[in-house]
C-alpha cells in the first residue's frame, strides 16, 4: 500500500493521504510521494484542480511521523529503502510538500475528513478552498514538544487569519473544532462527514468549468501581491489581467455567452 494515492478523474487530481492505520501521519514514503504528486499536478496540463484528503473517517493528517522521520534525519537510523535515501538526498522535499518553494498555481481543495494536527494543519494552509467534516479538529501542538510549527504556519497563518485567531492557534497549542475553524476563517465550509465527498466534488467540478489561465492568474496575483504596497500590487494585477486578456480563452468566454452555450476553455 502506498502512503499517498493520486487518482486522476478527468481534469481533477484526487490526492489521498493513505496511512489511516497511522493517523495519516507523514513518514518518509509519504514525504517523497506527496512531493511527486504535487509535481505531477503541476506538470500535467490536463489537470485543472487538485483535491487533497485523508483516508478513513478519523484523521486528515496528524503531522509528521516523528518516530520514523526524525531518526532518519538525525542519523539515528539508516535509510531502509530507495525512497528514504531520496528523502535524505533532497533536503528540499519537506518544503515541496508544503508548497513553500515553487507555488502550485492550480486551485487546491482540501476535504478535511478528520483531525488535522501539527503538520496536518500546516498542510491545509497550502490549500485554497477547505471543506471540513463537522468532527474535524485543528491544532499546532509543537510548542508543547519544545519545537515550532516550521512547515509554513509561522508565516502563513497570521497572513490568512486575523492576528488574535492566528496567535490563539500558534501559541495556545490547544485544538479547535470545526465550527471554531469556520468562524475564524481557517476553513471555507463545514459539512457532515457523509456529505464531505460530494461537497469536494461540487467545488472541483465548478473549478473545472472556469477558464484555467484566469484561475491561475488570480491565484498567482493573490500570492505575489499579499505583502506588496498597494501601487505595486495593482500594477502586478494589471500585468496579469493583460496577459489573460490576450488568451484564446478570453475570446471563447464572450463567444459562448453570446451563443448561449457552455464555453470550451483550453488553457490557451
Automatic annotation (TrEMBL):
Residues 249-268 have a biased composition (Basic and acidic residues). The keyword Lipid metabolism applies. InterPro entries: ClpP/crotonase-like_dom_sf, Enoyl-CoA_hydra/iso, Enoyl-CoA_hydra_C. One of its GO terms (molecular function) is enoyl-CoA hydratase activity. The keyword Transmembrane does not apply. It is an enzyme of class 4 (lyase). It comes from the Bacteria. Belongs to the enoyl-CoA hydratase/isomerase family. PANTHER family: (7AS)-7A-METHYL-1,5-DIOXO-2,3,5,6,7,7A-HEXAHYDRO-1H-INDENE-CARBOXYL-COA HYDROLASE, ENOYL-COA HYDRATASE-RELATED. This is Crotonase/enoyl-CoA hydratase family protein. It comes from Candidatus Seongchinamella marina.
